[in-house]
Amino acid sequence: MGQGFFGYNPPKFVTDAAKEALDKVDCNQYSPTKGRPRLKKAIAKAYSPLFARDINPETEVTITTGANEGILSALMGFIEAGDEVIVLEPFFDQYISNIQMTGGVIRYVPLHPPKNGATEVSSAGDWSINIAEVEKAITPQTKMIILNTPHNPVGKIFSKSELQAIGDLCVKHNIIILSDEVYDRLPFTPFTRIATLSPEIAAQTLTVGSAGKNFHCTGWRVGYLLGPANLIYYVAAAHTRICFSTVSPLQEAAAVGFEKADELGFWEQSRKDMLGKVERFCAVFEELGLPYSKPEGGYFVLANFARVKLPEDYEFPAHVAERPRDFKLAWFLIMELGVAAIPPTEFYTNENMWMAEDYLRFAICKEDEVLEGAKERLRGLRKYMS
């Protein structure tokens, strides 16, 4: 329940395509650095209706070795030493090291947890962003802002009004928007893509996607970026220097995935299945009276453990004892209950980690029997609750 990888295989039509690709000569050799033409065309066709415009597969799509390498390529393509990047916290931890590798300077803006988060079940959408704080973080050196929607670890889908306000600021100050939308096929509430809000915002937006997240195969490391040709050009150039090209047979299989997903009803079934897992797993928090943030998308759940009282005489190893309370909670759950979760203060700066020290993040993209087993073990918390 800790790391966000799937506990089950990709759909058969995708794995069959991967097996077939291994028998094709060209699929066992280098692919073009910007990606296999079939995959770029399939992505352009799949996303053109979602962006309400025709996406050019040759100039407005580039394939990367996972979404994370795509983010690194975008940063390498645009950020130079001293340039500033705004990051919202909690953040996907890879953002930080990727920015640091370019010599960029990070400016943090927090999402504020719901005021009743420790006492009541709330929506992940209640984690709020203060637009005035975003504007305050902008300086003449600001080059980029990274967004993540649906959000990891919160599960928040940024509202249209929030995205519009951020987009308007970026247009005003000529800031590139790097929109990490790798969970875009798992929305449980209306999902707005920032690049669709206006031509001006679209002109400054790079959208990040993940075939691994879409088709339940995170180990395949097939990502992609969509955006205007003048921005994609520099992402592709950086990708060429980082790893040259992405695994050929898995690109081919991902192409088949995008070609067939709609006709097979895969996207909707995947979304329904994941929402069912959210409801199945969160039932144990309802049962225990533990508040949690209902995710609006993705496959992570944040639960608040303020009511759980750790034994005062419990002996934590030194490397855990010196960390915030959520690390102690995570250690305790592993050692005493056999359930792994991620301490979300790891996704915060020291200044703001107090916001998350009572929370734990659970990845629910697992088989139902695993979720049921975890629920049964978590019931052991009753004796530690006030």
Strand content: 5-15%
Widest sheet, order of strands: 1-9-8-7-6-2-3-5
Low-confidence parts? none
Distance between the termini: 25 Å
Instruction: Characterize the largest beta sheet: strand count, sense, and whether it forms a barrel.
Output: 8 strands, mixed
Tally of individual helices: 14
Measured as a percent range, the helix fraction is 25-40%
Report Rg. Answer: 21 Å
Q: What is the β-strand count?
A: 12
Mean model confidence by pLDDT: 97
Supply the helix-strand structural class.
alpha/beta
Question: Key terms for this structure?
Answer:
alpha/beta, 14 helices, globular
Give an overview in words:
This protein is an alpha/beta fold and 386 residues long. The longest helix has 23 residues, at 266-288. α7 (199-202) links the parallel β7 (176-180) and β8 (205-210). α3 packs parallel to α4 (94-102). The radius of gyration is 21 Å and the shape is globular. It has an eight-stranded mixed sheet with strand order 1-9-8-7-6-2-3-5, sandwiched between helices. A four-stranded mixed sheet has the order 4-10-11-12. It has helices at residues 12-21, 37-51, 67-78, 94-102, 131-137, 160-173, 199-202, 211-214, 229-242, 248-261, 266-288, 318-321, 325-337, 368-378, and strands at 61-64, 84-89, 105-112, 122-123, 128-129, 142-148, 176-180, 205-210, 223-226, 292-294, 300-304, 359-363. It contains 14 helices and twelve strands.
